[in-house]
From TrEMBL:
Residues 15-263 form the PPM-type phosphatase domain. Gene3D superfamilies: PPM-type phosphatase domain (3.60.40.10). Its EC number is 3.1.3.16. It comes from Collimonas fungivorans (strain Ter331). The keyword Hydrolase applies. GO terms for molecular function: protein serine/threonine phosphatase activity. Pfam families: PP2C_2. The keyword Hydrolase applies. It is an enzyme of class 3 (hydrolase). Keywords: Hydrolase. This is Protein serine/threonine phosphatase. InterPro entries: PPM-type-like_dom_sf (IPR036457), PPM-type_phosphatase-like_dom (IPR001932).
Amino acid sequence: MPEQSLLADMAVPVALSLAQLSHAGGRQVNQDSWGSVLQEDLACVIVADGVGGQYGGEIASNIVVHSIMEMFVEEASFGPRALQSYIEHAVAQLNRRQAQIPRLKDMSSTVAVLLIDQTNRCALWGHMGDTRVYLFRRHKLLSATKDHSLIQQFVDAGHCSPEQLRRHPRRSILSAAVGVEGSAPAEVTQNAVQIQDGDAFLICSDGFWEWISEAEMEQAASQVTSQASSAQEWLDLMHAVVKKNGSASNIPLDNCTAFTIRVAEPRSSASR
């Protein structure tokens, strides 16, 4: 193939198929929020998990998601500095609302944000707290964010096993969250990851990943049969595992939110 033709093919944006679910689990209120927006060939996908009584968590996560989406729409850009600025904008907006309404001063939220440049075929992500971003390639886990939590620190120090991240009674104590005074800053990927046809992302709150192992995520990915609807099929398969594992426990189920995103060459997917 001539070089000019090859470059032209590489400039064709990859296609994305997305699927999403969210429910309250065993709680009265769903304090998770989520959103996705496409500006030209840049995609932004967000999941936030709120914390706070009297609907404070629901308000916090909603502010975080809509603040990021608002700034992305106004100043759509791809890069670690841009992503950091989107999250910092959400922090500022939440802090402003905390100051305006004293009863909401303790509300906070985790957040995970995925940016995809469809034309240049690359992605980067940032997060605060224990809402996670996973990247799978050829049905195998390639990358996953590391929680900003007390138990993750124990795991890193060798005092806990990785399995404790899902079951330790203190697993919800966070070292970073939007709206928490003195929180560690967002962790943002500094080098964009090149994405390939068939790559799949999962963005989810702890109410989802606590009830499904990474091996079960991979197994579900390998069972997907339809390329055209693979994001939805993969999510459905994983959600079935989450419901099965969660119902077999005596632990009250948390709010549960997840996005799946599949990358495909335009010719192999009708969904953009």
